[in-house]
Amino acid sequence: MSVDQxxxxxxAAQRRQQALAIxxxxxxxxxxxxxxxxxxxxAVAHGLVCAPDIDMEIYCPKLNIAHxxxxxxxxxxxxxxxxxxxxxxxxxxxxxxxxxxxxxxxDQDVEWKVDMWSAPDDYALPRGEHLIAPLxxxxxxxxxxxxxxxxxxxxxxxxxxxxxxxxxxxxxxxxVRDMAQLRRWMDDNPIGQLSDWLPAAR
Length: 202
Fold this sequence. Notes:
This protein is of the alpha+beta class. The chain has 2 domains: 3-125, Beta Polymerase, domain 2, CATH 3.30.460; 131-188. Helices cover 47% and strands 20% of the residues. It is built from 8 helices and 5 strands; from the N terminus they run H-H-E-H-E-H-E-E-E-H-H-H-H. The protein has helices spanning 3-26, 28-33, 42-46, 65-78, 129-138, 141-156, 164-172, 179-188, and strands at residues 37-41, 53-60, 82-90, 97-105, 111-120. Helix 1 (3-26) crosses helix 6 and helix 6 packs across helix 7. The chain is globular.
């Protein structure tokens, strides 16, 4: 493994620890835990943190919009670093869930975005939590470094837009290792959709 790859992995590990510290400071697991089963998903769960983003899913025995506003209010009142909160009702469109967002500024004045989806316990659409164990089961340092390097390139350019789930598919199952390969893969595969993709067994 090259020096650059080791540095990419170290930076991602540091960002992941910062993300977990922010989630702990805001008390997200505890506050949401009063109303359902909160799960940290996405890049933080996979150890693939490039952008200052935290993703959560909350599965609720009784989905109640008021509960989400209670969580947002407690987070905003409890931390001076919370700069904004946001809500969208997607129960009647493709996502069939409630969307919540918190914006948080860290010590370096970097704005972190916390994206949270609350849904019923019996939510039938693809769940981020279902990808955590299968992806961990096939992940290697080489795959992790390849994904993180591509994430950095995607962040630095507006020329290509690629959902994280599509990037993981491309690298893990498609063998993609650079931007040219990613562009070709995106041309040849369905992208930008809700996906229940799981990595092929090794």
